[in-house]
Design brief:
CATH topology: Collagenase (Catalytic Domain)
Strand order of the largest sheet: 1-2-6-7-5-3-4
Mean pLDDT: 85
Order of helices and strands: EEEHEHEEEHHHH
Radius of gyration: 19 Å
Low-confidence stretches: 1-13, 304-314
Number of domains: 1
Number of helices: 6
Structural class: alpha/beta
Strand content: 15-25%
Number of strands: 7
CATH class: Alpha Beta
Largest sheet: 7 strands, mixed
CATH architecture: 3-Layer(aba) Sandwich
Helix content: 10-25%
Shape: globular
């Protein structure tokens, strides 16, 4: 099942798809037993993969930004900056625009990421497929211990997008190169949007769903086309993230709008300022991190050696 919804703000479009196995829904556990507000942040390992054409073009390479600037900026530097921006997003939390009754407190997210490896794959056929892929199993390194993020070709229908399976460890993200190119003239906020999108997808891998959207990204005011979304599932399972239906009943006419007074600012929704997470969402992330994905934490990582300069050519 694959479907990408598209929204726009300031000439920016984002599409996202989390593919849900209904058998995993009971695993969407909450509870604060794994969350330590006074302890160190948990650190999740991430590999970044660049999908390129056979001739090494179409994406960042080991030595270049695909000759956009010819300044020496390359895939290694972009991967480091992507993780740096992602960690900046996780270093703070804010009040949600869509509040439960009574309002939820703001608690620290207490998680961040560390770059485990950077890889480059030259294969024109798979580069072309990467615009809709949720990740390439044949290229993933250290599965079961590292989140593998595959940066691929821009989709034809949006500026950027992401795809993953719930509780998986492979993410496809697309359009980052074009956002980088636009950022050179339009501002760093476009690169921030790419890192926001990657954090959003990692959230799915740790059990978080869209509060006011279907798994396929369509707003909950729509009835999705059969086989495009998990049937009837339009609730992230958190009592402190109001559903679309609850918000409309309170008088919010358009909770899914982008960048208006009615918009969400939740990191797991689509919006112009995706930064907030509720206590329940944070507890769920930590619950997954200390149970089924405990080995993804840097302090529990089993593979001794990693290489952030490793290149793989196919």
């Amino acid at each position: 099942m694959s479907f990408f919804s598209t929204i726009m703000a300031q000439n920016y479009e984002f599409s996202d798809n989390v593919i849900i196995d209904p058998n995993l829904i009971p695993e969407l556990k909450s509870g604060s037993e794994c969350y330590n507000p006074n302890g160190p942040d948990i650190i999740i390992r991430v590999n970044i993969h660049f999908m390129l054409k056979d001739d090494g073009t179409g994406n960042f390479s080991e030595t270049s930004d695909d000759h956009i600037t010819n300044t020496g900026y390359n895939g290694y530097k972009y991967a480091e900056d992507l993780i740096r921006r992602a960690n900046a997003k996780c270093s703070y939390n804010v009040d949600m625009n869509h509040q439960p009754i009574p309002p939820a407190p703001v608690i620290a997210k207490k998680f961040k990421f560390i770059l485990s490896g950077v890889y480059f794959h030259r294969n024109t056929s798979e580069f072309d497929q990467s615009s809709s892929s949720c990740g390439f199993s044949n290229y993933a390194y250290n599965e079961g211990e590292v989140i593998n993020v595959f940066l691929g070709k821009k989709p034809s229908y949006s500026s950027a997008g992401g795809c993953t399976y719930l509780f998986d460890d492979k993410i496809g993200f697309h359009g980052h190169r074009e956002l980088y190119e636009r950022s050179l003239s339009e501002g760093e906020w476009l690169n921030d949007l790419a890192s926001n999108g990657v954090v959003h997808e990692i959230g799915h891998d740790f059990g978080l769903l869209h509060p006011i959207r279907h798994d396929c990204g369509a707003c909950c005011d729509t009835i999705p086309v059969p086989n495009e979304c998990a049937s009837g599932y339009c609730d992230d399972g958190c009592d402190d993230t109001p559903t679309w239906q609850e918000l409309v009943a309170r008088g919010n006419p358009s909770p899914c709008d982008w960048n208006t007074q009615y918009s969400s600012n939740n990191l797991m929704d689509y919006n112009a300022s995706s930064e907030a997470l509720s206590p329940c969402q944070i507890y769920k992330f930590h619950n997954t991190a200390c149970n089924s994905k405990k080995s993804y934490q840097s302090c529990y990582y089993k593979t001794v050696s990693t290489n952030t300069k490793k290149r793989r050519t196919t």
